[in-house]
Amino acid sequence: MTPTTQNLLVVDDELHIIRSLYRLVRRHFGMQVNCWVTESTHQALAWARERPFDAVISDLCMPEMDGLALLTQVAALQPHAALMLLTGAADFSSAQRAVNQVGVFRYLTKPWNDAELLSHLEAALEHGAAARARAAEADAWEQHSGQLSPQEAERRRLEALEPGITVVEWGPNGEVLMPPVDS
């Protein structure tokens, strides 16, 4: 069951970008999404140690730490959070590294289209909440039975090898939904 209030962390070194994203999230999601925003990667990591986030969106080029390094650390703290990279300096090698090494859920470019960004944010929040719910179910099973089910043990083994590999989004008719392909 997806919680009614979800948590989103936005990190960008440009104040006008943070303000714009915050207003967009507030207008679209209202109070259904708690939105933490910061210009500081160190503050973002402190918050990631304190509370669970369903999704984290970060700029790529920042002075304290680049977005890939930040998202790598966030992923270690919160393996179930959907990670998104937002950049004005898109290039294939950084996109490839973001997806293959960091496990970024979406790689987005500035300037963005509001409707497209909101669609990606909705997918990321849903993905993160579902992953957190599955982890909670697995923990409850483990506490109840004192051991992992064979299926859960295998799922955790696969997730450790390839984060996100066991995540499947299902459509209303039971079909597997593939993430949209950005052009």
Indicate how many domains the architecture comprises: 2
State the end-to-end distance.
33 Å
Strand content: 15-25%
**Named CATH topology of the largest domain:** Rossmann fold
Q: Segments where pLDDT lies below 50 for 5+ residues?
A: none
Shape: globular
Radius of gyration: 16 Å
Quaternary? single chain
Q: What is the CATH architecture annotation of the largest domain?
A: 3-Layer(aba) Sandwich
Q: How are the strands ordered across the major sheet?
A: 2-1-3-4-5
* DSSP summary, beta strand count: 7
Overall pLDDT confidence: 83
Which structural category do the helix and sheet elements fall into? alpha/beta
CATH class of the largest domain: Alpha Beta
Residues in helix, %? 40-55%
CATH H-level superfamily title of the largest domain: Response regulator
Largest sheet: 5 strands, parallel
In short:
With 183 residues, the chain is of the alpha/beta class. It has 2 domains: 6-126, 3-Layer(aba) Sandwich (Rossmann fold); 131-177, no CATH class.
Could you outline the blueprint of secondary structure elements for this entry?
Blueprint: E1 6-11, H1 15-29, E2 33-38, H2 41-50, E3 55-59, H3 67-77, E4 82-87, H4 92-102, E5 106-109, H5 114-145, H6 150-161, E6 169-170, E7 176-177
Parallel strand pairs: 1-2, 1-3, 3-4, 4-5
Antiparallel strand pairs: 6-7
Describe this structure in words.
The protein has a five-stranded parallel β-sheet with strand order 2-1-3-4-5, sandwiched between helices. The chain has a two-stranded antiparallel ribbon with strand order 6-7. The protein is of the alpha/beta class and 183 residues long. Helix 2 runs parallel beside helix 3. The mean pLDDT is 83. 50% of the residues lie in helices and 17% in strands. It folds into two domains: 6-126, Rossmann fold, CATH 3.40.50.2300; 131-177, no CATH class.
